[in-house]
Amino acid sequence: MPPVVRFAPSPTGYIHIGNIRTALLNWCVTKRAGGRFILRYDDTDTARSRQEYADAIAVDLAWLGMVPDVQARQSERMALYDAAAARLREAGRLYPCYETEEELERRRTLQKARGLPPVYDRAALRLTAEQKAAMEAEGRRPHWRFLLNHRIVEWQDGVRGPAHVDTASLSDPVLIRADGGYLYTLPSVVDDIDLGVTHIIRGEDHVTNTAVQIEIFEALGGSVPAFAHHNLLTTVSGEGLSKRSGALSIGSLREAGFEPMAVASLAVLTGTAEAVRPIATLQDLAALVDLSRISRAPARFDPAEIETLNAKLLHETAYADVSQRLSALGVGGGEAFWLAVRSNLVRLADAKTWWDVVRGPVAKGEQDREFLHRAASLLPAEPWDENTWGAWTQAVKDATGAKGKALFMPLRQALTGLDHGPELKALLPLIGRERALARLGA
Ligand SMILES: Nc1ncnc2c1ncn2[C@@H]1O[C@H](COP(=O)(O)OP(=O)(O)OP(=O)(O)O)[C@@H](O)[C@H]1O
Question: Where is the Aminoacyl-tRNA synthetase class I anticodon-binding domain (predicted)?
């Protein structure tokens, strides 16, 4: 059976490189096996979720080449969660609690003072019907906790190998808040069952959730998917990433002019046993993904590496793959120009700078006018090709005795206005005889 995976961000900010690592790993695992990819907006937190963020997530995924097969929004699926909550209540697995946050905090402080773990003591289970009625009459509204089975929950983790959590060490999780709103835990399981999710690949921030959710899958009679928890990406200084801070957002990397595959390669290969390098397509990247070779330690993400990777990727990119974007930038010169400049680019937009150099005007610095006049008089007739530069500079060398840097640098500076840049044997035919003569001051 082909896999069904989901990427389930909360639309509470712009997704960052860490979130996209999760999305890409899911995409790679499912698409190479002919499976489906669900984009599910976990937007039960109505105060913080925004349509604008949901739209931006879809744009970010599409930019990286991920178009979901199915989209779902939790805010539209409340009836399913209500039905599941009713079933858990009937089964005695969901119970009302009336403690306020302050009461709970006081109890936790006491537990810690006695050297006990700050785990919820299930006091609400001992409330009588009268006590509950009295609290309701006072206007207190319950929140609802899931009754854990207090057992060792085990699973074979795709990244971490055999994994287990003793749910006796956990507080019964709150599934429904006093205002009736659902926390993430229950809707996620209900949707995974309803949408037929077979593999859950997510960050290791969810390991404890997994133990709880496996108990909920079982309580609802759903089949438990395979789980894999990958390491998280951090900043270079080791800090976590958050949608709320906006740091390293996919949108900002796109606006900075990076190639989607440079971003994708770095997001997926960082913190794995694979060497970090630019991979040309998602398909090729998918073939490299091996969940069991993802490191257990958090992986530092260095934005400076994107520049290196982006440059390497462009250096190997074929003209056909960028011709439309070059036209949109106002860059001409066809394939010959692309091949001449691509190894000098860090970002695609840099091509425009070199195109401006070809077209001119170029900056005029200090010039040895006599030398340049001599060189101009030796310029061969067109048509020019890759051999023109070599033949011409040989002629200039023979005539003037200049060699090495003394020969090439004045010519480069006069022809391009710069002391560095693409190889002149490729650039000279694009500049052409007329412009070359003018730049040499002839
Ligand atoms: N730094 C990270 N590195 C790798 N994966 C991450 C990172 N942060 C979150 N994820 C993963 O991204 C997915 C979407 O998570 P979620 O929407 O909760 O994002 P978040 O960045 O953790 O949230 P927020 O900043 O809004 O609290 C989850 O599977 C989560 O494990």
Answer: 365-440
H helices present in 387-423, as ranges = 388-400, 404-416
List of residues 6+ apart from 302 with CB closer than 8 A: 236
Alpha carbon of 182 to those of 44, 112, 144, 147, 187: distances in Å? Answer: 6, 29, 10, 16, 7
Q: Verify that 214 and 344 share a domain, yes or no.
A: no
The per-residue pLDDT for 414 is: 97
Is the CB of residue 298 below 6 angstroms from any atom belonging to ligand 1?
no
CA 284 → CA 87, 147, 217, 288, distances in Å? 45, 45, 34, 7
Q: How far apart are CA 151 and CA 166, in angstroms?
A: 6
Judge residue 440's burial from the number of C-beta atoms within 10 Å of its C-beta, 0-12 exposed, 13-18 middle, 19 or more buried.
Answer: buried
* Structural domain of 96: 79-176
Same domain, 115 and 158: yes
Provide the residue count of the chain.
Answer: 442
Cβ atoms of 351 and 329 closer than 8 Å = yes
How many Å lie between the centroid of ligand 1 and the Cα of residue 168? 26
The pLDDT tens digits of the residues spanning 309-348 come to: 999 999 999 999 999 999 999 999 999 999 999 999 999 9
Pairing of strands 94-97, 36-41: unpaired
- Two tokens, residue 100: 């306020």
What H or E segment, with its residue span, contains residue 321?
none
> Per the annotation, does 403 bind a ligand?
no
Which residues of the chain have a pLDDT value below 50? none
Q: Is 93 in the pocket of ligand 1 (CB under 6 A)?
A: no
- The answer to whether residue 397 is domain-embedded is yes
Is 206 a pocket residue for ligand 1 (Cβ < 6 Å)? yes
ipTM: 0.94
Q: What separation in angstroms does the CA of 289 have from each of 12, 19, 120, 170, 268? A: 29, 17, 40, 33, 8
